[in-house]
UniProtKB/TrEMBL annotation:
This is Cellulose synthase-like protein G2. Gene3D superfamilies: Spore Coat Polysaccharide Biosynthesis Protein SpsA, Chain A. The active site is at D139, D450. Mn(2+) binds at K264, D288. InterPro entries: Cellulose_synth, Nucleotide-diphossugar_trans. Pfam families: Cellulose_synt (PF03552). Keywords: Cell wall biogenesis/degradation, Glycosyltransferase, Membrane, Transferase, Transmembrane, Transmembrane helix.
Length: 739
């Protein structure tokens, strides 16, 4: 076994070389820039010196950008990629069992058919069926979802054996039937069988549609616990064929308006306890309900790491990238979050491992049980941490290897008692005065429970790996319009900045607990919303200075101009390199700049405001704007690479205001330098405005040239005009007024 490792890593040597050179050059020029800022302020006594307030704003923006860049450079230190050797895994009998957790919360936004496709795809994982249990958490307690999972089970009894028989990699029926060529290049041999299954699938869909009409997609925030092992009650079904089926469990935890339910982390913790009693598998796959398994071998791929003798004692989870099936080639909204999964996670993988990313990961159950699990801890202490369920406490001590060890569930009477117990651990009061959510399970301290839980796991000495195979292991769909992208971003960024401003701030809490570079990676991720400050400042202050004839950057002929131009070019350059080496195009590179600016002045900005308000105790206030209803045209425009600006004015106004302001300053600057017969000292500022304008050209177009429904509404433009006027007025009186 030692001689044949289950996986191997490849360090991207060229990248390491280029990245580290960039880090060296960039830090040198940053120091020069700081020296210039300070000295030009202290020693420049002429009338054109920058007044104090603009100087402070520009300098602190530059410092903050420098700080965030420094944190970010940790991702570039040692990017690696991994490959696995499935054929070297132990025989099926020796593989450990796996529980799959799928969470859904709203039968309207997450239609049962889609959720069931995810359930079916995970039932069809290429793994011994006796060692696979699929748990669906339905937080809405919807009878439609319960009905759907029964139907899915019935269809699954045909689908799962079919997938196994023909080694179908894509276990999601909807995706499978919508393609014309299968994984093996259209096998003719099972055409007939394939058609039959397709007919059954259509019937299954139809039954859900009819049920949707009669039952209705209702969700409830006030309902008792409802836990059911699907298929096991029906005596007819309990025939030998079912040995080929994984176990499927429907879990709807008890919800009461009077008790906090802690969102997704709360339902994952209920699943941890319920599954602990029912199957207690040592490994868990967590999936969002819209992320189906696109490669049935992902479980085996994950086991190549979890079963590796050398790393398994410290390995907490294997993270797969989130990939999306509905991303267009140019992806103008960066809906794929490309940079995270092709640059940042592989970068962290070369350190202690990637950040836990909410979905698509195989995690070790033991890692989630915290420190309180040591063998010699007595029962009283265990009860204090894990709650009073004896059945669950017993599960902490035992390891089950497959269904067949699990006599209790199959026996009718004790089966009923067991279900009773699962309802008990699924009640909202179960966690009162225990360590759930504080030290055990998924943690409640932050709304970005994945990021936070992963961070704490790393702090406790666990590691993780990033597995990014050629064929996407999981596929989902991502919102592909401006409004949804920014609103989602605002929520995440509130959570991330909250962590940064809390006592768990990665650079403070993490120091000494995780290696410095990992600390920096975590810090960057949570500090990202702070980009809003420098981006806002640098899109306003140098421009106001320009209008007042005050230079803020060195003249082109000055040696101080060199660090500024090097910093600018090396930032553009390293990003271009990152995009190109990971399979992107120059167009994507340019898009990512635009999306970054757009997010900085909206999602990061509102997210930061929210986080700050919460910090100061204003809990109710929220800057998360409301969703606009999407229409079919939006999807079309996205695919054509045309921006669709149907979003609330709250999101549009900052963008349009800044663009107008920069247009004014650019035109003014050009006019002035033409009259003066040269750029003089104002080149830097004129160029900055120019850069902002060309990056954001689609906004100018949406504002002035387009007439379609996706343009920027004139009302938003007018409002923004008023805003820019106010900024000009305010800037003039506050910054430059000299008595
Ligand atoms: C991608 O999927 C999301 C969520 O289902 C949907 O809102 C969006 O319109 C889809 N985009 C495309 C281009 O199909």
């Amino acid at each position: 076994m030692e001689a044949f490792p289950l996986h191997q890593i490849a360090v991207d040597k060229l990248s390491v070389y280029i990245n580290r050179s960039h880090t060296f050059i960039h830090s040198t020029v940053l120091i020069c820039m700081i020296v210039y800022r300070v000295s030009s302020f202290l020693f420049n006594k002429d009338s054109q010196a920058i007044p104090l307030i603009p100087w402070l704003l520009i300098f602190s923006s530059e410092l903050l950008l420098g700080f965030i860049w420094l944190m970010k450079s940790a991702y570039n230190w040692r990017p690696i990629s991994r490959s696995v050797f499935l054929e070297r895994l132990p025989p099926d009998d020796d593989l450990p069992p796996i529980d799959v957790f799928i969470c859904t919360a709203d039968p309207v936004r997450e239609p049962p058919l889609k959720v069931m496709n995810t359930v079916l795809s995970s039932m069809a994982l290429d793994y011994p069926p006796g060692k696979l249990s699929v748990y669906l958490s339905d937080d809405a307690g919807s009878s439609l979802t319960l009905y759907a999972i029964h139907e899915a089970w019935d269809f699954g009894r045909l689908w799962v054996p079919f997938c196994r028989k023909y080694a179908i990699k894509n276990g999601c029926p909807e995706a499978y039937f919508s393609t014309t060529i299968d994984d093996h290049g259209n096998k003719i041999g099972f055409q007939e069988e394939q058609k039959n299954i397709e007919v059954e699938y259509e019937k299954f869909k139809e039954s859900l549609r009819i049920a949707g009409e009669s039952i209705g997609a209702k969700s409830s925030q006030d309902h008792p616990a409802m836990i059911e092992i699907i298929g096991s009650k029906d005596p007819v079904i309990a025939d030998s064929d079912d040995a080929k089926m994984p176990r499927v469990v429907y879990v709807s935890r008890e919800k009461r308006p009077s008790h906090p339910h802690n969102f997704k982390a709360g339902s994952l913790n209920v699943l941890l306890r319920v599954s602990g009693i029912i199957s207690n598998s040592p490994y868990i796959l967590v999936l969002d309900c819209d992320m189906y398994c696109n490669d049935s071998t992902s479980a085996r791929q994950a086991m190549c790491f979890h079963l590796d003798q050398k790393m398994c004692s410290s390995l907490a989870f294997v993270q797969f990238p989130q990939k999306f099936g509905n991303i267009s080639k140019n992806d103008i909204y960066d809906a794929a979050l490309r940079y995270i999964f092709v640059v940042m996670w592989p970068g962290m993988d070369g350190l202690r491992g990637p950040i836990l990313s909410g979905t698509c990961f195989y995690i070790k159950r033991e890692a989630l049980y915290g420190r309180s699990r040591e063998k010699d801890v007595d029962l009283v202490q265990l009860k204090q941490s894990f709650g009073p369920s004896n059945e669950f406490l017993r599960s902490l001590k035992t390891k089950r290897t497959s269904h067949s060890d699990n006599k209790v569930v199959d026996d009718q009477d004790s089966g009923t008692a067991l279900l009773q117990e699962t309802r008990f651990v699924g009640s909202p009061t179960y966690e009162t005065n225990t360590a759930w959510g504080k030290e055990i399970g998924f943690l409640y301290d932050s709304v970005v429970e994945d990021y936070f839980t992963g961070f704490i796991l790393h702090c406790r000495g666990w590691s993780s790996v990033f597995c990014n195979p050629q064929r996407p292991a999981f596929l989902g769909s991502s919102p592909t319009n401006l409004s949804d992208t920014l609103i989602q971003g605002t929520r995440w960024n509130t959570g991330l900045l909250e962590v940064f401003l809390s006592r768990f701030c990665p650079i403070i809490y993490g120091l000494g607990r995780v290696p410095l570079l990992d600390c920096m990676c975590y810090a960057y991720f949570s500090a990202q919303p702070l980009y809003c400050f420098p981006v806002w400042c640098l899109a306003i202050v140098p421009q106001l200075c320009l209008l007042n004839g005050i230079p803020v950057y060195p003249r082109v002929s000055s040696p101080w101009f060199i660090p500024y131009s090097v910093a600018f070019l090396s930032t553009l350059g390293i990003h271009l390199w990152d995009v190109l080496r990971t399979g992107g195009t120059t167009r994507i590179w340019w898009n990512e700049w635009r999306v970054w600016m757009i997010k900085s002045v909206t999602a990061y900005f509102y997210g930061s405001l929210d986080a700050l308000l919460k910090l100061f105790g204003v809990k109710e206030a929220s800057f998360v704007p409301t969703n606009k209803v999407a229409d079919g045209e939006q999807v079309k425009r996205y695919q054509l690479g045309i921006y669709d600006f149907q979003a609330s004015t709250m999101l549009l106004a900052p963008l349009v205001t800044l663009v107008i302001l920069n247009m004014v300053s650019f035109i003014w600057g050009i006019g002035k330098s033409t009259l003066a017969g040269g750029w003089g000292e104002l080149f830097g500022q004129i160029f900055l405005s120019f850069f902002i304008l060309i990056v954001n050209y689609p906004i100018i177009e949406g504002m002035m040239l387009r007439k379609d429904k996706g343009r920027i509404p004139p009302s938003a433009t007018l409002f923004s005009l008023a805003c820019s006027f106010l900024i000009l007025l305010f800037g003039y009186t506050a910054f430059f007024y000299r008595s």
